[in-house]
Amino acid sequence: MPTRRHLLAAAGVATASAGCLGVLGDDGEPNAEGNIADAADDDDDDNDTQTVELGELSVQNNHEESHQVQLAVEAGDGMLHLGTYQLEAGGSSTTIEGEWNDEPGAYRIHARLDDGEIRTASVTDGVNEGAECVRVLVRVDNEGALAVWNGAGCES
Hints:
Largest sheet: 4 strands, mixed
Shape: globular
Distance between the termini: 29 Å
Strand order of the largest sheet: 4-1-7-8
Strand content: 35-45%
Number of helices: 1
Order of helices and strands: HEEEEEEEE
Number of strands: 8
Number of domains: 1
């Protein structure tokens, strides 16, 4: 259960990053799932307002050390989720439940690894315009860097 201090820190993450156009991930390096693209290279702002279902949101740690990830999920002007996750070394993961599962929205993810900088992205960055549902994985890679992966299609 997050403490008041963790919730206040997560609120600070969301507030400090509101309106940012930065991205999460590996500067647009693609993967099979459709890594979130580098917004600086994208002249098309249509994805900023594209609405999709956020079918799944997970955090995972693939690094050999434990890490803390702070997450905020934003839709429009509202903050839907603030949370801090302690992830054990070597593949621990958590699926995050939230009210976003039922409603399409223009979702943005704000994330912070340990005491690092806050990063922000739309969940539709790099996703085809016709996508109706997106899955998002926020992960600490095997080198200890924060990356966010997304992919269209939420069928099991």
